[in-house]
Amino acid sequence: MSHKLKIAGWISAGALAGALTTVSLQTVARGSLAPLPLDELQQLAAVFGMVKTDYVEPVDEKKLIEDAIAGMVSSLDPHSQYMDKKTFKEFREGTSGRFVGVGIEISQEDGLVKIVSPIEGSPAFRAGLKPNDLITKIDEVAVKGLTLSEAVKRMRGDPGSKVLLTIFRKDENRSFPVTITREEIRTQSVKGKVTEPGYGWIRISQFQERTVDDFAKKIEEMYKQEPNMKGLVLDLRNDPGGLLDAAVAVSSAFLPENAVVVSTNGQLAESKMVLKAAPEYYQRRAGADPLRHLPAALKTVPLVVLVNEGSASASEIVAGALQDHHRGTILGSQTFGKGSVQTVRPIGDAGIKLTTARYYTPSGRSIQAKGIVPDVMVDETPEGNLFAALRTREADLDKHLSSGQGPESQDPAFLKAREEAIKKAEEAARKAPVDRKIPEYGSDKDFQLVQALNQLKGRPVLVSKTQVVEDKNEKKEQ
């Protein structure tokens, strides 16, 4: 099985763009090719010839062929993609947890780039940038009108190069320039702390190459501080995915040895896999098990797993495995529903990301276009979660792959909730803007975390009265 893990491990995610992708990277193409449809290929060649000779102006042959390949692959589903040399390089950087840039986590607000948090120790952190700062210009280019990915590309560059950011700090009502020297950034995907005597919180923001080691280290630190842990919260909210083997490892930390974590199924023989809670299924390198020093109590400590609409792919694998094995209580909102596997095959310096399999939980449930439905539905604030129905999930994406487990249809209750949310959004848009901030995850004002701790302590939990499940084949409401 270990030889399969060497080619099955890459997951890329674009939560802000809604394109959440689970992938495995294969460095060797298939040994055999399917029969080629000669008539259709002749037709394609004829069209290429006409465009080359008859178009109003000369065309770039290489670009024309690349665009044809891109169109063919992207027409399959939202996650299959042709990647040129630059995109392929960025893709590989994204899964390593390393990139060259300024070191900020960002989102978008009113067409500007909003700093969610500077990464500790990064150039942005040292330059004094703060959460909620708005970036209005990158060098001399106005951010207004740029997509988030375009803004990211402008802020990235070569190590040692400089970028000029114009910052608007709302609480001080002033703008100022900051020149930052780019350097390699190593993102920290694991946070954790003892929230109060006997209870801990550990958050995984993305499953990257260092996640398993960082997770194990953080758990060991927490148990050293609090040896008599009575309950633990595993926070996977807004975790868009990451490396498959990292998801298997985190699941294995809580599950009995050799328990099934996830299975995959597709046309290729190598896409039919069953991954279990054992080192040979998640070790990236030869050597000692990265989970070997975890306290034995982690296998039995009462557990609550926090998820929401932004939890996708690898995080859904973890939540589904723990739910099926009754290892913890899943709490929050229905997850994104990204349950397909994309295999990336290099083509020279470029590559193709192709959907090759679906993910299934240990009980055989398809995650694709369904997601994980929490055991306890809880809103993100005490006031509710009225706009959750407007958030895009896999099932809302054009040409999305079906679950493969029966026809899809949206429940009338979900459609009604979406209509009501649209009306509320329209009403809010007519009013004066209000700076409504969701409290920082892990803080004492984190409503869902408070409810998770209540669940662990056996206290009443304020369950949602508005959330409904998107797929009618799942349970309807909590």
TrEMBL record:
Give every PDZ domain span: 88-170
Q: Which UniProt keywords apply?
A: Hydrolase, Protease, Serine protease
Q: Which InterPro entries match?
A: ClpP/crotonase-like_dom_sf, CtpA/B_N, PDZ, PDZ_sf, Peptidase_S41A, Tail-specific_protease
Record keyword Transferase present: no
User: Which Pfam families did the record assign?
Assistant: CtpB_N-like, PDZ_2, Peptidase_S41
SMART domains attached to this UniProt entry: PDZ, TSPc
Family designation: Belongs to the peptidase S41A family.
Q: Can you say what this protein is called?
A: S41 family peptidase
Lineage summary: Bacteria, Pseudomonadati, Pseudomonadota, Betaproteobacteria, Burkholderiales
